[in-house]
Amino acid sequence: MPEISRFFGIVIKMFFDDHNPPHFHAEYGGDVVLIDIRTLSVFSGRLPPRAMGLVIEWATLHQEELLADWEKAQTQQELQKIAPLE
Asked: Is the peptide bond before 21 cis (omega within 30 degrees of 0)?
């Protein structure tokens, strides 16, 4: 699963040819969450509240890039790195 961004100990990844809805995986420590790109809602897992807030802030800034990477992942194309939250 390619890593597309990393910030404050949070790793953002996306699987190739993954199931719908369009989503990304965020990992922090031993926790993992799956977030719908279009609604930015969690549909699986959990993160600590502070990490979750940072992930949603980042995803809000990069929603279009996330959707573009999702489309690439569906056709096995190389994913683009997305700038970290600073």
From this structure: yes
Say yes or no to pLDDT of 1 above 70. no
Contact criterion met (CB below 8 Å) for 73 and 82: no
Statement: the pTM of the whole predicted model exceeds 0.70: yes
What count of residues does the chain have? 86
Domains in the chain: boundaries:
3-74
Residue tagged 């897992």 (tokens): 45
Q: 37-73: string of b/e by CB count within 10 Å (b at 16+)?
A: beeeebeeeebeeebbebbbebbeebeebbeebbebb
